[in-house]
Amino acid sequence: MADAVGTHFFPEIAAGGFSRVDGTVQFWQRVGALIGPQSVVLDFGAGRGAKQSEDLVSYRRGLLSLKGRVRELIGVDVDPVVMTNEALDRAFVITPDGELPIPDQSIDVVVSDFVFEHIQDPGRAARELDRVLKPGGWICARTPNRHGYIALGNRLIPDSLHARIIRSAQDAREEKDVFPAVYRLNSTSAFKQHFPASRYDLYVIPWDAEPAYYFGSKLFYSLFLAIQHCTPAPFKTVLMAFIHKRPVA
């Protein structure tokens, strides 16, 4: 939901509820272009479905809601709360060893929205995604850029203070939705390492949306906007990665 601070800097929010730099709109529009009625989609890190159910902007909710638009929407998460996610057709809890309870080459599109930053073992996660993804399929991931100021600042905050500070900086963020971030699969070099060019095509879009952590302050908001305006692409706050598994020749 846009507040008075956001609409001060992006008045076009009044026309539809989102700004010209809205990262959710940018990411999910492209996801929508890659799915079809016959697609089997995996929501990797689906959680409790807060994004789909609690976004107050109807246009964004439409983009986020894939159930009914694809043949099947499967969700997985390490947190058993995924079993309560009503936005999914089926849900599974990821096993302690990281294995996905999904058959080989059964997924057309993997979507992972702000999850890669929490992956402890990127090699294992990438191998599992590769195993379940069909040749010709896509992995769509939005994640904080390891080299952006948000991730850099987050790594400087002690774990014990993360939830409190993020809750103060983002009024709409619930503490139960704050998880430890390790930033091991959050750079272009990491994507290239774990999804090698011998079998994958990688398309990375660096992005700066509206400032998300500004403590309700117009001064902080304007400061972060200025920083983002001067930041070169490799240091943008967010990366949108679209990773294509080449068809078998």
From TrEMBL:
UniProt keyword terms in alphabetical order: Methyltransferase, Transferase
Pfam families: Methyltransf_11
PANTHER family reported for this sequence: METHYLTRANSFERASE
MF annotations from Gene Ontology: S-adenosylmethionine-dependent methyltransferase activity
Species for this entry: Bradyrhizobium betae
Protein's recorded name: Methyltransferase domain-containing protein
Biological processes annotated in GO: methylation
InterPro entries (UniProt xref): Methyltransf_11, SAM-dependent_MTases_sf
Start and end residues of each Methyltransferase type domain: 65-140
